[in-house]
Amino acid sequence: MRRILLAEQDSWASGLGWGRARGCALPAAAVLGCLQPAIDPVFLTLLSLATPLRAADHGWVVGMTQTASALAATMVWWLGPRMSMRAALALALGAMVAGLLTPLAQGFGGLLMLRAIYGLGMGAVYARAMGGFAAARPTGAYAIVLLVQLMLATLVSLALPDLAARIGAGRALGLLALVPLAAAVALHFAREGGGHRATPVGNGATPRAGWALALANFWFICATMMVWSLCGALAVQAGHSEGLIGRAVAIGSLAGAATAIAVMRERLRVPLPVTACLVGAALLAPLVLTRPGAGAGFVLAMVLLNIGSTAIIIRCSGLASALGLGPRFRVFVAATHNLGMSAGPALGSGMLWVMPDGGLLLGAGLAVLAGVGAVVIGWRGLRHCAHWPLSRPVFARSGRQKGLD
User: Which keywords label this protein (predicted)?
Assistant: First the structure.
């Protein structure tokens, strides 16, 4: 396994050419492809200033964007080599046009259509780019992308309101059309230098453990989005101020960044089922700790939520990608991110509609249980993986490390 991954990494780096700048093309495209969900709170606030969009309709905009992203990512996986790189680049350029027209939209239906076009483009970019970048050292690849996405989203969230105050909300939002344009350029350079990494051709036989870990990734992202989508509303109902909510989100983001750095290595120091159980408790923390007069509890809950979601997404995505023997499966692993982000809020809203009292906790709890169960199945299946035998684990034992590095 060590030789396979090192050979893949060497050929990927040398194939890109043009030095280190070209080697950043795939991760840059992946980061830009998943940037939108991280800046949605600021984006939607400015969108309501630039258009007649009501705050009550923000969920529809997010849902349409994420559903389209999930559809595009699934399409990239399903079609595989039948979907040309030109098609992905065309979708990305379509997202750029949709981004330019978004602040000009006056009708709600037209706005939803534009965000669907935007989501299609960015979902296709992320699935292709992440599927290629995760070919070598997949855990580190996902950690790097999530870390850089978090840092870039923080900068954009801080700069965009000030920019809107100077040039207007509509023009500031129009500048976000540069994101899909930059993603298309990055994906194009990756294709020119090493198209075999960016284009999901072929398909290897993936063991059951890989599919189980990909499914676990989906369920944990679902649980995260169920809770995350309603954290603000829960805090407001508990009487917490906007300042406290903002500080809690910022501190949680810093905790998530630190977690990404901590789990960047390919080796596992804690068995994955143990990590999954701890993460499950962390994801449910905001539903338990958000109480009136307990500001510190809400901050702690946001920290736990960010730590847990970051750790499990990186671990499950990295291990599942490493177990896949073909680039097409790595694209599927990336697609589970979009699918989870789309399904999570919808499932959470459905549970609240069916059970207004306790429905969210029940739904998130069931998603966590499904994720833990899939992790256990995947972990047990590692023993039967011919290309990743448990005799050469990705653990660190007794101060002596063995693994992929």
Answer: Membrane, Transmembrane, Transmembrane helix
In the prediction, which pLDDT does 355 show?
87
All domains of the chain, ordered by start, with CATH? 2-198 (1.20.1250.20), 208-401 (1.20.1250.20)
Compute the distance between CA of residue 247 and CA of residue 242 in angstroms, rounded to an integer.
Answer: 9
**CA diameter of the chain:** 63
Query: Phi and psi dihedrals of 68, rounded to 5?
Result: -65, -40
How distant, in Å, are the alpha carbons of 18, 188, 216, 278 from that of 275? 40, 38, 12, 5
Element (H, E) at 152: helix 138-167
Residue 306 scores a pLDDT above 50: yes
pTM: 0.78
Q: What is the mean pLDDT of residues 356-379?
A: 92
Phi, psi of 401 (to 5 degrees): -95, 135
Number of helices (H), then strands (E), in the chain: 16, 2
Residue 401 belongs to what H/E stretch?
strand 400-401
List C-alpha distances in Å: 369 to 210, 247, 372, 377. 18, 30, 5, 12
Which residues, including other chains, have CB under 8 Å from residue 81's CB and lie 6 or more apart?
A: 199, 200, 201, 202
Query: What region, left, alpha or beta, does residue 207 occupy, with left being phi > 0 and alpha being psi -120 to 50 degrees?
Result: beta
Extended strands (E) in 11-95: none
Q: With beta carbons less than 8 A apart as the criterion, state whether 235 and 290 touch.
A: yes
Q: How confident is the model at residue 197 (pLDDT cuts 50, 70, 90)?
A: very low
Q: Beta partners for 396?
A: 401
Looking at the chain, how many residues does it have?
A: 405
Q: Which residues pair with 400 in a beta bridge?
A: 397
Report how far residue 296's alpha carbon sits from residue 313's, in angstroms, rounded to the nearest whole number.
26
Which one has a higher pLDDT value, 169 or 230? 169
Residue 124, pLDDT > 50, answer yes
Gap between the Cα atoms of 8 and 21, Å rounded: 19
Q: Is the pLDDT of residue 219 over 80?
A: yes
